[in-house]
User: Fold C40 family peptidase from Streptomyces sp. SID7958.
Amino acid sequence: HGPAGQAAPPAAPAKTPATTRADIINRAKKWVTAKVPYSMTSYWSDGYRQDCSGYVSMAWNLAGNEWTGSLGNYADKITKDELQPGDMLLFHNQSDPHAGSHVVLFGGWTDHTRTYYVAYEQTRPHTRSQSTPYAYWSDSARYVPYRYKGVTGSTAGSEPDTAKPAAPVRTPFPGAAYFGPGADNRHVTELGRMLVERGGARFYTTGPGPRWTEADRRATQAFQEAQGWRGSAADGLPGPQTWDLLVTGRG
Assistant:
């Protein structure tokens, strides 16, 4: 959300440098690639604060570091149906900015149902982009879509950026050793993403990651039980059959 008071709402109209949707997403991807560590007090080499609002300030190419309480001055409210890559989803908790306030960049819908989108965000431990349930994992109803006032072009960049890393990759089952307590690898992330796409988002509070958690076990078990499996077949650990159903979209 950013330190309150660092960027007070401007008395004059906020300066909104012109930029394109493609440039916004390309700048956002640079931090994803660099895995910029999250911090509310540190600044990256480009001069922007390493928190969620500093990230959006950077992607929008703003002159300074804004916070969740001031970013709205640089944008216009829009509807869910109007969202395009480079827009933002903002939750600013006015009563207590430090409690839940957050902002993410919209990267495009993952499919025609418009229930999941690619979110670019600065969060712990570092910048990431991943498939996210609309509008967010928590406090979903409190997120408001906005469009940066300086974005140029009406249709350029309107095609969803489905961000290939956020979509399930149909790889063969890697083996049981890659899952369960203590596991920390990319296959755990892939499993989580597939489970989220199949309705498992309710088990995750911050989204899937490489470290195996109870959320992964519960989401896997729920998927297995939905197939009618019981006992050891629904123990929350993925086997070849569970994996095959997930990667092929069956089950």
Remarks:
- The chain has a mean pLDDT of 86.
- The first strand starts at residue 75 and ends at 77.
- The radius of gyration is 19 Å.
- Helices lie at 21-34, 52-59, 186-197, 214-226, 240-248.
